[in-house]
Amino acid sequence: GESVGLHLPTLSVQEGDNSIINCAYSNSASDYFIWYKQESGKGPQFIIDIRSNMDKRQGQRVTVLLNKTVKHLSLQIAATQPGDSAVYFCAETDNQGGKLIFGQGTELSVKP
Amino acid sequence: KAGVTQTPRYLIKTRGQQVTLSCSPISGHRSVSWYQQTPGQGLQFLFEYFSETQRNKGNFPGRFSGRQFSNSRSEMNVSTLELGDSALYLCASSFLTGGLNTEAFFGQGTRLTVV
Lengths: 112, 115
Prior knowledge:
The complex is a heterodimer. Chain A has strands at residues 4-5, 10-14, 19-25, 32-38, 45-51, 56-58, 62-67, 72-77, 86-93, 101-102, 106-111. By secondary structure, chain A is mainly β. Chain B is mainly beta.
């Protein structure tokens, strides 16, 4: 069945270090991917997206990499800050009726 | 520009009752999706509406229903509530262009507790 899974449920990093959060997806038809950040008591917050015709996209301190060959997605956060502590979700869609399929999430903890 | 607004933020209901949740999307967004978030199941897709039509539906029982109005506001209804329906219900809106989804923005969610 459809699934989007994360390799690491928890990640602890030192402030200032770079963080890498990984995600595997199984639907070959998925052509749009989004990373979300969710803080306690809040809804998911859009971080960055990427379409399947790209393999890399950069934002402010964040980079998303897409490897369609192995169906792998990663989120890189540069110079991680305490405010980056949250649960990160990857999501995929094949543009069929606006349905996003979410991974289980990775909890990022940043130590000062 | 106002974000996605969900009301109410918190709700406590008794088993067997029914509940209606509301979502106002970002101005100009015509696609509204609903998700259920629980610790055990994570984020699960409920349904999506575009121009008042349900385009897609997740694997939830018929007790879960929704609708969208001409101003793109959406409501979801859960009838005959069960304890397992306790969850954070999230609404997301997005702007479709050329038939492609664009980034979906989420509201703060409605925390439903069934007792």
